[in-house]
Each structure stands twice: as C-alpha cells, then as structure tokens.
Amino acid sequence: MAYRLAWAVFTVIISFGVLPVDLHAAKPSPVLERMRKDLFFLAGPECAGRGVSGPGIQKAADHIAAEFQAAGLKPAGKEGSYFQPFTITGSPQLGTPNTLTLTNPDGQKRELTYGQDFTPTGLTKPGKLDAELVFAGYGITAEKPAYDDYAGLKVAGKWVIVLRKSPNAGDPHGPFTQEQQSLATKAANARKHGAAGIIFVSHFSDGKDDPLMDFRYAAGVSAELPALHMKRSILAQLLAREKKILKDLETGIDEDLKPRSCPLPGWKANAVVSVVRPKIPAKNVVGVWEGGGPLAEETVVIGAHYDHLGTGEYGSLGGPSAKGVVHYGADDNASGTTGLIELARRFGASGQHTGRRIVFIAFSGEEIALLGSRHYVEHPLFPLDKTVFMLNMDMIGRVTPVESDAPAAAPGKTDSDKKDTGKADSDKKVMRDRLVIYGTGTAKGLDAFVDQAARPFDFQLLKVPGGTGPSDHDSFYRKKIPVLFFFTGTHRDYHRPSDTPDKINLPGMMKVIDLVEVAARHFAVVPQSPQYLVTQGGWSDPTDPNPRPGRMNMPKLGVMPGNYEATDGGVLVDDVTPGGAAEKGGIRKGDVIIAIAGKPVQNIGGYMNAMSTQKAGKAIPVIVLRKKDKITVQVTPTP
Ligand SMILES: [Zn+2]
User: Fold this and answer.
1) Cα 305 to ligand 1 centre (Å)
2) SS3 letters across 391-424
3) Are 477 and 307 within 8 A, CB to CB?
C-alpha cells in the first residue's frame, strides 16, 4: 500500500511540476513476484517463443486477456472479447501443382521434372501459361552501354528465355550494373516488351551443377508474370535443335557485345505455377480502462508486442544452429508485455477516474513488420483522431547500470543545492541505470516533460527525438499521434534462443514501468492534448555497442520496407514517412527501390549499404520500379 500511496502522491506532484521524494527504497516484492510469474510464463516453454503461426502464441494471448480481465479492464475486441483478430499474409510459398511441358516443332512433348529440371522463382505470379518460346539473351535493354536483347524480337504474349547475369559477367568492371542484372529488372523489362512469361537460365559461371534457385531467393516482390528457373542443359538442347550452341552464343556476346536473341519457331511451353501465401490468423489483445468527465471520449494508448520468433523460422540472428530452436524472447518482448499487464493492474486497481480512457494493446505480428499495430491504426477500436498519445514498451528488461557523467544527486538536495556540492561529486564516477526514450520530439514540450518525469528515477537517460523506428509506436507516429517508446538497449541475446527470463533485471524493469505509469497518468488527465510535431531524424540505437559504420547516423530516405525476407528483386516500399525525403521526392507506396545513387539495391542489406554512404541534405538519384515502369527520382535524404 505505502508504496502505492507515495506513488499516487508523486504522480499528482509531477503534473504540477514539483520535485518528488526519492522512491527507490520502496520495492514491494508482491509486485515483483506477480511480474516474475507473467514474464516466466510468456518467455517459458508453454508459449514456445510466441511465433505468429506457432502453438504458443494462443496461450500467451489467453494469458494476457485473463490478466486484463482480472485487472478490471473492459474487453474492447470483437464481440465483447479482448481480441482484435486480423490476418497475416505469410511470405509466398510454393503450392502444388507446378508443371512445365515443352513441345518441340514436331509436336513432341517433354514433361520437365519440377525441382529437378525447373522450379518457379520467388518472383513468380501464380497461374497457367501455354505460349511460344523465344530466346532473349540476357533480357537486358540498356542505354549505357548501348545494348538491347529485345531489339527486333517479337515477344508479345510469349515466354522469353533469359540468361541470368550479363555479358562479361565475370569482369568486375563489366559494363552492366547489378541493377541491370537483377531478376526483378529483367522481369519488368520482359513485361515492358509484352512477354507473358519469363524463364531464367543460369549463366555458365554459376557452376556446372547449375543449382536451381531457392524459392525464397527472390520472394517478396512479384514480377506480375510467371517466372521460372530452368536448367541450362535444357536450353542447350533446345538451341541445339536450332543449330545453335549456348556457350558459343554467350562467348560471342561477350566478345562483341552484340545480342544473340532469336525466335524458336515451333517451340512452346505450357506451365502451371502454384504459389500460396498462407493466411495466418493473428490477434491483438485489447482492454480498456474507461475515462470520465470532459476528456472521457479521448484516448491514450499503452502498447507492447507479445509475439516473437517462435523457433526462429524468420528474424533469428542465431545462425543456422538456431533454426528450429525456441527463441524465448524474454526481453523481446515478454518484458514489455509483462509491463503492460502490470500497468493494467495498477490502473484497473485505481477504479473510476476523471480523464481520458486508457487502451491497453498487446500487438501481434510486430516481428514481421509491425503488422498488429498497423492493423490497429487502420482499424482503430477507438477514434484515432481522438487518440492523443501512445506509449510503447519494447525490450525493457535489460536495465543496465552504466557509468554516468552527471554528478550524484545528494539525497533530499534540489537542483540548486546540488550546484554547491557539485565540485566534490563530479570526481566520483556514478553508475546509473540506462534507459532510452524515443519520440521526445513528437510533441511540443514533450522533451521537457520527459526530463521532469524521469528525474526522480535517476536514469542515465538517452533521448532520441524521432518517432519512427522498428517497433509499434512507429505505426501511431505515422498517423500523427505523439509517441514515447521505452527501450533499455540491445544485447548479444537479441533475437537468439538465449534471450531467456533469468537474464531479466526485474527491479530495473519495474522502474521503467513506474515511469511509464507516470507518463500515462499525466496524459490521461492533462487538459490540453499534446500537440503533434513531425520530427527530423529517424531511428538509431544509442546503446548498440558496435554500430556498423555509417549505420548509426545513416541519413534517412523515409520509407518503410515491406519485404525484409527477400534477397533479390529490390526493396518494396510499404509506406513512406509523412514529410520524409521519399515522400517529397515522389516515391510512392508500392514502388520497388532497385538503385540508390547508382548503387544496386537487391535487398534490405543492399539498401542499408547504399544509404550508409550517403550524406543528409545531398540530393541523390533513386531508381524505382512502378508497375512496369522504371522511374528515376531525385531524393534528398534527411539526418
Ligand atoms: Zn521487439
């Protein structure tokens, strides 16, 4: 109780800007015990790593709902439940059947073997196509160098067989860029010339085993036409019938850089391609602490994602050995979820109140692409235009004391007193619990509020003004809602099976939760709703011990990538940041970025590499694929 009362007094004090008493002393263990229970359950074997399509996430959702109910929160989900269901479209997977039959000019049919002679590529569009075949060389149309495999070739409504890579592919200083060689560019070029399907064949430098591409290799960006990969030997046989030798064609092109494309009269290919995008049922867990009085119709959201990586099928940093192993996700994000449940208890226990309602949301699908929070802001359960603030907790379990340069606060001394004693204290290095708070620039006066609210906790506070970033507050910030995101730092167990509950600093975590409580109580009652501000500067992790050069303060393009898992085909723009560089430069949702400042972008890694060498404020050309058009726009990255 005591602790609670001191707490209540403190929150009132903070709203009126008076300095509080030191609260560190009072740590009621029953609170720690109930938090420990939640944490060890959520990050335990039963929840099995809370993968979105795994067995354990249902148990986690039921646990959160039961605790919301026990805390006295009202259900805010579907049909009086605590659940807001939504569907996750999984990454494309091969379905059945997948067939490819070649017919030669004499009408003889040859059925090829799926997985042995051919396979659909991750770019492929599902469907059936029975059409004539044309050999289109490397499938490249370029101004620099002047080279066009489609010159004089009739390909409308036909299959084009296209070699991977480019002429003189072995020469690192070869004339063709990576972007011109990328599968996505070649598929778009084929479509541009009216082809109805594309069959890739590996370059001779890919080795005589000529391995077929893994479906996931280019999964993520659809070519909008059937796209297969076929063995070289089959093309060689096909060309031989036309008295052509594949190797000679390649060598010839390498020598004089003249295309060797040709029709294949009488040849046809009939294919059926099946791709399924699994529909995974998911759900956010939502409970509400109703408001009262004039502000009752306004909302403050407190959120934390409860999903994690399951057994490491996607997003694991543990390497091949971690595949199939439970990733317990104690810090990421059983800690934030435990915080959410704990806050539900505290607010629920305070009963009726005058002020805004507080909506507690445990999001799913965060690890894939913030899917649960994006679903919520697209399908809000409470009016978004009356949602005045969002507080997000993600990885708040590894509070670490760090050396702090600010002198120790003399007990009971106020700022002004401190100055007198400053001299002696500054010599002694003080250890303080490190906490990162993002979003301090997303509302007027928010930075000062954070300083004041956090002072009694004596954190080593790292503030980042930006409201975007790899967690659920990002979805609300993009809807022009001020946000604060609480994070205690990255560590070597991140996204590995070793992120286990025994490593969680529970008392430290409780301090963070206490601070979130202060902020939430403040925004629930402050008469004036916070004024949203667009922030400059994106996300960076000030706690990352070995930030990759350039990544830490890499200039921002202001896009939200949509196909993290793809390794080729470019980066899909799933969203652009309001007022960001991309939006100003004319990049749109749905575009596929394939080159930045002349650097090829095949995947998220290529994107980061290209951006890490750019300068904020210096305009750069960005090439995007929009439908079948390749468009170059000028974009000025921001700090
Ligand atoms: Zn997380």
Assistant:
1) 7
2) EEECCCCCCCEEEECCCCCCCCCCHHHHHHHHHH
3) no
Reported pTM: 0.74
- Give the residues across from 271 on adjacent strands: 100, 129
d(CA 465, CA 467): 7
Spacing, Cα 201 to ligand 1 middle (Å): 40
Question: What residues have CB less than 8 Å from 56, skipping those under 6 apart?
Answer: 46, 47, 48, 49, 50, 310
pLDDT in tens, 168-196: 887 777 888 877 888 888 988 898 899 99
- Rounded to an integer, the average pLDDT of 73-99 is 92
Using CB atoms within 10 Å of the CB of residue 1, give its burial: 0 to 12 exposed, 13 to 18 middle, 19+ buried.
exposed
For β-strands 357-363 and 299-305, DSSP reports them as parallel
How do residues 106-133 score in pLDDT, each as one tens digit? 999 999 999 999 999 988 988 999 999 9
Instruction: Quote the tokens at residue 99.
Output: 């067939």
* Ligand 1 mean position, distance from CA 182 (Å): 32
Sheet strands (E) in 104-233: 109-112, 118-120, 127-135, 141-142, 147-148, 159-163, 197-201, 227-230
pLDDT for residue 163 is more than 50: yes
Domains of the chain, first to last:
2-91+279-525 (3.40.630.10), 110-276 (3.50.30.30), 553-635 (2.30.42.10)
Q: CA-CA distance, 238 to 232, in Å (whole number)?
A: 10
Q: How far apart are CA 291 and CA 276, in angstroms?
A: 45
Q: Quickly state the pLDDT bin for 639 (edges 50, 70, 90).
A: confident
How many CB atoms sit inside 10 A of residue 26's CB?
Answer: 13
CA of 251 to the centre of ligand 1 (A): 51
In three state form, how does the secondary structure of 421-456 look?
A: HHHHHHHCCEEEEEEEEECCCCECCHHHHHHHHHHH
Name the burial class of residue 194, with classes exposed (0-12), middle (13-18) and buried (19+) by CB atoms within 10 angstroms of its CB. middle
| Amino acid letter, residue 294 | P
Q: For residue 393, how far is its CA from the centre of ligand 1 (angstroms)?
A: 9
Give percent helix, percent strand, percent coil of the chain, each to the nearest 5.
30, 25, 45
